[in-house]
Structure of Enoyl-[acyl-carrier-protein] reductase [NADH]:
Amino acid sequence: MRLRGKRALVTGASRGIGRAIALSLADFKVDVAINFFRHRQPAEEVAKEIEARGARALLIKANVADEEHVERMFAEIREHWGGLEILVSNAASGVLKPATELTMHHLHWTMDINALALVPLVQHFLQLPSQGEKVVVAVSSLGAVRAIPNYTAVGASKAALESMVRHLACELAGKGVRVNAVSAGTVDTDALKHFPNREQLLEESRRRTPAGRLITPQDVANAVVFLCTEFASMIHGQTIVVDGGYSILA
């Protein structure tokens, strides 16, 4: 799909959905910069798997909510690779509490990482040279549009993220940059272990999903890779929902 030789940055790429995206891009011989912040060992393992697939890997430790870290991260990419064609904003964090228990610290922490970080990431991405079109894909979740217990802070941040995607798409389409989002249904990753009602969420999702199974990280990665290809050349500012049909039910 004409992805061979392109260069990508995937934030939060050491585990879960980010890992699946990084490896899926590497399957198409895309070189992948793996951003991580806390979990170096799994990030190193992802790097080895990328190289085993015949692509280059670049390991970068950075907090995407810290502008100095972001600036240093893109400086490393420029130094090692010279440029970048694909940015996948996947790194996420947040506080899972009832709205009545949230503090402003909780809200700022969640919003800074999940939504606001996209803007400086894109700004630095635009400054790097590229070979042809640039693509930005942000990873969202159904909590952006649906009420989920204890998900107020994260859901609000994902809604803000999807809004930013639409505005960035309008601003950048004329400059040869495509910006979209992929919204995932319930995925059983390490992040879900922090939900106090994890088992209930998984069982409810299995029962209600028309496709008959839970979404996997690979399902999400497949959609991200598609948005990076020429087949998605006229998709701008959209949020592609990957949930097996869960969200179409009343």
In short: Residues 152-172 form the longest helix (21 residues). Strands lie at 7-10, 31-36, 57-61, 86-89, 134-141, 177-184, 239-242. The mean pLDDT is 94. The chain has one domain: 7-242.
